[in-house]
Specification:
Strand order of the largest sheet: 6-5-4-8-9-7
Radius of gyration: 24 Å
Largest sheet: 6 strands, mixed
Number of strands: 9
Order of helices and strands: HEHHHEEHEEEEHEEHHHHHHHH
Number of helices: 14
Length: 359
Amino acid sequence: MSRLQRRITEAAEAALAQRGFVTVIDVLTGLGWLRAGHVDTWRQGRAATLEELAAVEGARMTEAAALLRSWALGRGLAEGESAYLSGARDRGELRFLVRGDEAVFRAHWISPDMSEARRKRLAERQTKAPDLVAVEPQREWACAGCGGTGPYLIMEGAEPYCLTCADLDHLVFLPAGDAALSRRAKKESGLAALVVRFNARRKRYERLGILVEEAALALAEEKCLADEEVRLRRRERDRERRAGEDVDFQARMAAEILRLFPGCPAERAEEIAGHAGQRGSGRVGRTAAARVLDENAVTLAVIASVRHLDTDYDRLLMTGVPRARAREHIRADIDRVLTGWRTGIVGAAGHNGRHGELA
């Protein structure tokens, strides 16, 4: 098996374990050839093709898609087809490549264990037109229709339009934060649009709220007030359930750390799992690969802990040493600790031997 085949298999297995199906997009992002922000930009209709956003050329993307197909057929997965439609006003079909056959990119592969009901829901979801997307611009812009501007823009083709020219200026903005109110307002509204803003630090689009009809928002607010107590009790039950799931996941992750690194102290393994697997942290322990205890993802979590607690890395950063140089400087210390833990030599101390709150 080639290195690319191995990486595709790891990415595909992680997606399959998490959702019960896998797409070419899952694999391309799993390989690191695309970021989530790239996919968002493409889905919003702000890029002509996915290829122009990727770190590799179309031929390489096609090779990965073909290898995914070969893997999926070998695993006995069922093939389905996804309708990739733009979130721009025209709802046009999204393109993957500058040129070439794109059929292999539109396939998704389903676990044979998925129930018929879930397959039906998946098919409906994959063929459903995406939400209209309004973008909060980060710089000055001009509407392609009237030459004016505004707080949000809607893409039509490759051109930005203001809400007035896009016939959306009668909608009102509902900020994110109340999921039940947003869900009900969107359901009641004949026309709605998701409002997003690009986060440069995280390199992805983040939801700000939705644009909905004013009458729909008023009706949704009435319904939410009527059953507020019921929803509060449900949220508390959901919170307790998620807390239990997190404890179970972190225990399984700690056990996997000890399997891979038998010399790692048990309390340290628990500390790493608790830190890396914290819900909402965005750390490596919350990635799709880590949630299925992918060996590489678990190892990265261990390395991150060793870097901060057993080396001079943090001190070097505080003294102004560039991050790349600091990482190179402490590489031998990390290797020494990991080698000790892998070979079962308990107490193979790193440079500092520090313990405490993880950074």
